[in-house]
# Entry
Amino acid sequence: QVKLVESGGGLVQPGGSLRLSCAASGSIFSGNTWGWYRQAPGKEREWVATITSDGSTNYADSVKGRFTISRDNAKNTVYLQMNSLKPEDTAVYYCHYSWGPYTYWGQGTQVTVSS
# Structure
């Protein structure tokens, strides 16, 4: 079993930055993949970014060049650095962890981009 706890969300003005964190506890194994997803009001949950165990990253086109996903294996923590935030980035952001057939989700953290 794996528990994920996100933090770092909040209210930020357009153009600002936030850094989300997701700390994992429980049975963490190598060869895993971490990801961030988001869900805006009235919309489906969408993929934002992924980082694999070897450090390879992928981003949705909507955030490419503005967001950076990283991981600290020693701390079992993944981060999402969000720069140049836009109002359309407003959403609940969810951390995702997968290993083999097992997947886990965090409870989500609210990010609001507004002036």
About this structure: The first strand starts at residue 2 and ends at 7. The two ends are 40 Å apart (CA to CA). The mean pLDDT is 95.
